Amino acid sequence: MDIRTKLVFALVIVALGSMVALGGLLYLDTSQVFEDSRVEELSGLAASTEAGMRQIASSWEDRVRLIASRTRLREILTENNLEGSPGAKEQIGRILADAQKAVGAVESVAVYDAEGNLFASAGWATQSDLTERLDSLPSAMDSVVYLGVLSPAHEELRVAYSAALTDDGTTDGRLVGVLQVRLNTRPLIRLARNREGLGLSGQTRIAIRDEDGAIRVLTRVTPTDSLVWEEVGLGGPSDPLSYAMGETVGPPEIDLVGADGERVWAAYRHLPTLDWGVVVQIDEAEARAPADKFGFGITDIIMALGALAILIGTFLGLRFAKPIHELADAAERIKEGDLSVRAPVRSQDEVGLLARNFNQMAEEMEQQVSLLKEFQNYFELSTDMLCIAGQDGFFKRVNPAFEQVLGWTQEELLSRSFLDFVHPDDLEKTENEIARLGEGLPTISFENRYMCQDGSEKRLAWNAHPQVGTGLIYAIARDVTDLVQERKKAQDRIEYLKDRLEKAEANLRGDP
User: Fold this and answer.
1) Same domain for 278 and 255?
2) Buried b (16+ CB within 10 A) or exposed e, 237-264
3) Whole-model pTM above 0.85?
């Protein structure tokens, strides 16, 4: 059975299976679509609330910076540190009282001197709430530092920040004091009241960890949307707040059983730098209601589309399988050694692109094989001695000319170090030349003597070039034994004639 028939059968079986199973799976599929949409909406609401919480925290930091940026506050602290300015505490107290009234959400403000001692304050309910001396001083590099959430028994929750006060108002200046500010949490309460997109059962739960490590959550206690901070315990993996406060690790959207026993869908976000969290949740029954209504309404349509898919699948299977079969046939012929075969290109789509790329690959393969054969012929038929050697001292490949000139078989030449074949008197200069090649320098007209298998010696002239990074050396050698001998005979003849000429000239001059 070829690929065309297999593809047609596969498409028909898939279509029939889809038609039979789609009715049963339709409800689940439709529910998943609505679930994904609802979960995405919950995730968006959680992300939006998270952004709102970050914006509130950022606005609080801006308020602290605004108070810390008051020039007169820094000047008085600087003068007091240097000269002990009289009335400094009263002046700073007035500045802090004005700042508390002028800057929204600020409940209380305190200033400590450069040694960490309480200097002045405004807005504290009782003096006992104030720390008389700071345990540690912030660095002048710390612009605004989040201290945490405070929960005094007689007050609502307060969010505390500190800021370093420097003589010039920059992080490069000298520390002259520390500003501590407490702000109320009413902006978070207003944010939690927003019920847009939550339906009847949905709710937004904002959680924070206070200075004692307790988890406090904004909880609705009356039908009039009154929200208060209530201390709660985390319920582990079954509690969305456990995820929002970083106690349990999981995906940002979860499906679990709520405290009332009903399944809920929830999305959460954790703000690790502040140790705050938010959970946006809705009852599963309310979330699935649109899916239940929509799913059954489109069952008949999907069944009809399943039948149509059988017809379309059969047609497309026959149409698309033909070029694939032609490609497979061409590949099989190339495998058998026919590199001239090409696949027909019948379209401009992905299959046509595949056929064009296949043909290009086959053409390049044919060219490479042709070049390889030409190189093989050149290597095998050359009368010069061609080889590839390694800087480890071994031949990697030699052509037949080596055996013709030296008498050693190819196996013998490849199994032993080529230095074993070098004449002992030429071994040192050969090793020096190999070292030069190791430095990337080519060899030109280097001569040495090689020992033949019959005990004779041959003088070879070498040209070689190293390939950097591979440790390979490509070399050509030529037997110049006879040429050297003829060159020596010619030199001896020249010396002989030169000597006869000098003697003849001496006789002519009458020299004894």
Assistant:
1) yes
2) eebbbbbbbebbeeebbbebebeeeeeb
3) no
Residues 236 and 213 in one domain: yes
Burial of 124 (0-12, 13-18, 19+ CB in 10 A): middle
Computed from CA positions of residues 62, 64, 65, 69, in that sequence, does the dihedral angle turn out positive or negative? positive
Are residues 214 and 198 part of one domain? yes
**94 and 158 share a domain?**
yes
For the stretch 292-334, pLDDT in tens is 676 666 666 766 766 676 677 667 666 666 777 777 777 888 8
Q: Are residues 55 and 193 in the same domain?
A: yes
- Please enumerate in sequence order all residues whose Cβ is within 8 A of that of 217, keeping only pairs 6 or more positions apart, or say none: 205, 206, 207, 229, 230, 232, 241
CA atoms within 13 A on the CB side of 82: 9
What is the rounded CA–CA span in Å between residue 161 and residue 320? 68
328/343 same-domain check = yes
Q: Which two tokens stand for residue 363?
A: 């053409």
What is residue 380's DSSP assignment? H
**Dihedral over Cα of 500, 501, 506, 507: its sign:** positive
- Residue 172: give its domain's CATH number: 3.30.450.20
What own/partner pairs with CB < 8 Å and gap ≥ 24 does 379-386 have? 384/476, 384/477, 384/478, 385/460, 385/476, 385/477, 385/478, 385/479, 386/475, 386/476
